[in-house]
Amino acid sequence: MVTYYKAHAVADALEVLGRTDVEAKALLGGTDLLVGLGDRLDSAPGVVVDLKGLADGEPLAVTESGVRIGLTVTMADLLADPTVSTWYPALAQAAGEVGSVAIRNRATLVGNICNASPACDTAPALLVHGAQVRIASAAGERVVPISEFFVGPRATTCARDELVTAVELPRPVPGTGSAFQRLTRRWGVDLATVSVAAAVHGDGRIQLGLGAVAPTPLLVDVPAGTDLTDRAALDPVLDEVLAVATPISDIRAGADYRAAMVRELAARTLRAALDSTRRTQA
Amino acid sequence: MGDALKAQEVGTLRPDGNVGTRTKRYGGLERASGAQKYAADLDFPEALQVAIVTIPVGCADILGVDTSEAEAMPGVVGVLTAADLPSPMPRFGVSHKDRPVMADGRVNFYGEPVAAVAALTQEQADAAARAVTVDYRELPGVYTLDAALAPDAHLVQDPSDPTKRAGDPLRETNVIEEQTIAWGDLTEQEAKAALVVEDSYSYPMMTQFPIEPLAVIAEPTDAGGLTVYTPVQHPYLMQRIVAGLIGKTLTQVHVIAPDPGGGFGGKQIPKYEPLMAFLALKLDRTVRLTLNLAETTTAIRRAGAKVHARTGFSAEGDILFHHVVIDYQIGAYADVAPRVMTKGSYVGGGPYRLPACRIEARAVLTNTPVSTAMRGYGAPQISWATESQITDGARRLGLDPARVRLRNLVDNGEEFVQGEFAGKADGEWKEAVVKAMELAGWDDPLPPNRGRGIAVGIKSSATSGLSQSLVRLLYDGSAIVYAGTSDMGQGARTIWAQTVADELGVPVGKVQVISGDTDLVPFDLQTSASRSTVFMGTAVLRACRDVRRQVREMYAERVGADPGDIDDEPGALLTPEGAVTLDEAARIGLGALRGEVLGQGTCRLEGRKGHPLGGDASFYEFNCTISEVELDRGTGQYVITRHVSVSDVGTELNPIQVVAQEEGGAIMGLGQADMEQLVFDEHGRLLNASAIDYRVPTYKDVPLELLTGSVENHDGPGPYGSKGMSEGPILCTGAALGAAVTAAAGVKVTDLPLTAERIWRATRAAAEGAIA
Ligand SMILES: Cc1cc2nc3c(=O)[nH]c(=O)nc-3n(C[C@H](O)[C@H](O)[C@H](O)COP(=O)(O)OP(=O)(O)OC[C@H]3O[C@@H](n4cnc5c(N)ncnc54)[C@H](O)[C@@H]3O)c2cc1C
């Protein structure tokens, strides 16, 4: 049987999560956790620690250096925030694709990355936006770049007795553009078969974040100066940089289709990212 | 059907009546607000909760079942295994009585019950179910049609078992039934053909996906019988089967069938009810089984099919011959599923004038869950092939596929199935095609990457059946109608209320409809085959007329008139002195003792021996569908930009319900065409039972524009010239969508569902072929 525990502060939550006599799981929106528990709760972990009422939980905050996304911030919150959509179009587009209106009202960004599905929609965007993950434990706090956060399917560097408290995004270099696209089996409420975020940074770097084509979301660099408007020239470049992708065949798609689609979406999102830099400049 | 119902009897619409208007849904507010009580909402405080024990493979010999640990667990009241059941194992089924109450020494499909645990709470039952140890040896089960039809295939049903296949000439194979419909000379026609199209098609297994999962409550009665609560489309059949299995009379088995939250055929055969009956009797306790969505998806499905077709055309687009070989994958037990094959393949030639045709169909057993009826009943599987063939023929001849259909469609009264058991058109079907073409803007040019496709569908409705109804006209002018049709979302209750209101002249809000209870409501065969409007509708109509006849006689007697001088019409008696409203006449007739007038109506259609359908169809459903898509060439994804569905409905009894059925059927058909499929692994396990991986359309997946229409010639056998219409829009959706995709992509996909990946593969294969 599951015990529900409503934590009132980060330290309080960490204490319960640190107990060794019982298995404890953090709860935010519950859109992954509760689905995983199923509709019969007998096989569930011992304690579910609800983090939604933390007195010291952080909100969505815009700072000089960027944006700080606290653990209770939902996809709907991200979509409603004008700074997020101006500075981080890829993240806003990814947040807007998650589930449905009802899901986005509950699903948090932190929950999305902590669940660490290879198909997690916000991960590719967070990768190209250079996000940092703040992790708290009884011993204190550490900060991990998102590119090191995921270690395998449903596994992160955040240990059992730790908590992710926030995701921080650096303020983009002026002239940066980004975009996100995903492929699904149907238009409404689906998990990505393949997802790609692209950023064309103001300093010339070009990056791709890839979802559902490897055990973890991947970050790859596209050589600076690549002409993103010439598809014929771009495709061989993409073939090279996308070689790190190791898509599998499963019930959602065949590996070869995923491989072809990651290339297709990469070309499209790069183009869209480039167009969005032009929009910001105009 | 003509004999069953005389033309003058069907009545005409009252200009000021309810029938034919957009009367509000009976019980609609309750459904929308959540007040409607579905089976899972019923409260049984004393009931034990049940969990079913299964094994994680689709085919295995059971070597032992150890329940000792489970029985000792907290809250567990009892466990039922095959050893508790009579020997030989009791079996049930609607046309083949081959389905065991629980696995009989061998598990033949994934999910087949091996034991059932009853405990005080669901959690306790689930935990105990996991503690039941089943010792089994996996067998090389057959999970696909190819495997089942291979020469040395594992036989799903033991050929020596006298309860099943003894004496059956096909018993050494997995074919449980076969049927050939043929006329004309294929060779002779082929010699004349300018083009022969030959291709193979596949249609996947799918689930009905009712939003309300299955639920059963079995409650022992003081009289030694049972009350069974189950949201099904066949309460009377359920009653007969359960009573037969437990050796009780019909009066001892009371079936209460709350309005199903969607059925689509999936709630039309008994599944867990027999097991629950034995469990309730063993424990002498009320027992309750509530399945979740994934368990329901595992338990009910439509037959998949593989088809090979050859079709010949003249250069002008006449279809000269059509030869189809189709195998339906029906599952581990036959039950009623072979009928899906016989009914589906009977109309396999389509509604066309064919000089020669041959449909060879087989129903094939596999170690997969038992298939059953689903909206369209075997017709969508074969129409996917037949209609794709016609589209392909037109395309290759450079002809307009809509006009090729108009050219070959039969006229009203003309045979589209020839021979001893001919099938004749019973409507102006070309009108539906013309109307659909108009709505779709068929001849308007399309922007690049768009494609349009057309198909027509046909299905025979019920070929026999019986529906009985009672109507009570109460003293205050209100009325109660008893009709055993299950209202599972199609709005049956509304139609009965409208009919009674018009026939008796009662305001529609004063008509109460009672159904879903075998103790209260007289017999109805079942809610299936779009039969209820015609069959039960006629029974209700007759019950109303019986009320009117009785009122006329009572009134005449009371006022001392000659009944012969009094006539009646809907809602009134016509006396020499003038019209008297029916409720007023009833009050006069009933007199000081008051009371009520009780009318009875029956509609019966006998089958015909030897007929492949068991009888002549009471009517045909005809539909024309046009789909339009916009294709993304890079990914194979497409948006359905416009979808048109037009059916021949005879008469719209309630236009808003007709549109709802047409739209619902079209959306369901599109889901089945573009995303739905059940996928089993090499151990026969269902891989995508969950709502995450069994995809059905969401609101974002419906066509951008969904247009529906109907043809109304008041030529149906039902009340006011109506026909059943709830399956029409799903009959040919796959072929219409497939044709649209082909038009946009330039490639033909022969397997459903039409996923983006399949289209991408076909496009790539075509491009590679062009280069090579
Ligand atoms: C119908 C439906 C549609 C969906 N569609 C999408 C989609 O399109 N794209 C997509 O990416 N996802 C989708 N999801 C998955 C899910 O909604 C998202 O992953 C969501 O962001 C999870 O957030 P949550 O707040 O609900 O997390 P929860 O379910 O509360 O938690 C998720 C996981 O993170 C752990 N966790 C929570 N908080 C912390 C913390 N502070 N520190 C460490 N671990 C923590 C939990 O223990 C749990 O394992 C969908 C889910 C559903 C049910």
UniProtKB/TrEMBL annotation, chain A:
Keywords: FAD, Flavoprotein, Oxidoreductase. InterPro entries: CO_DH_flav_C, CO_DH_flav_C_dom_sf, Diverse_Substr_Oxidored, FAD-bd_PCMH, FAD-bd_PCMH-like_sf, FAD-bd_PCMH_sub1, FAD-bd_PCMH_sub2, Mopterin_DH_FAD-bd. Residues 1-174 form the FAD-binding PCMH-type domain. This is Xanthine dehydrogenase family protein subunit M. It comes from Actinotalea lenta.
TrEMBL record, chain B:
It comes from the Bacteria. Pfam families: Ald_Xan_dh_C (PF01315), MoCoBD_1 (PF02738), MoCoBD_2 (PF20256). Residues 33-140 form the Aldehyde oxidase/xanthine dehydrogenase a/b hammerhead domain. SUPFAM superfamilies: CO dehydrogenase molybdoprotein N-domain-like (SSF54665), Molybdenum cofactor-binding domain (SSF56003). Residues 1-21 are annotated as: Disordered. PANTHER family: XANTHINE DEHYDROGENASE, XANTHINE DEHYDROGENASE SUBUNIT D-RELATED. This is Xanthine dehydrogenase family protein molybdopterin-binding subunit.
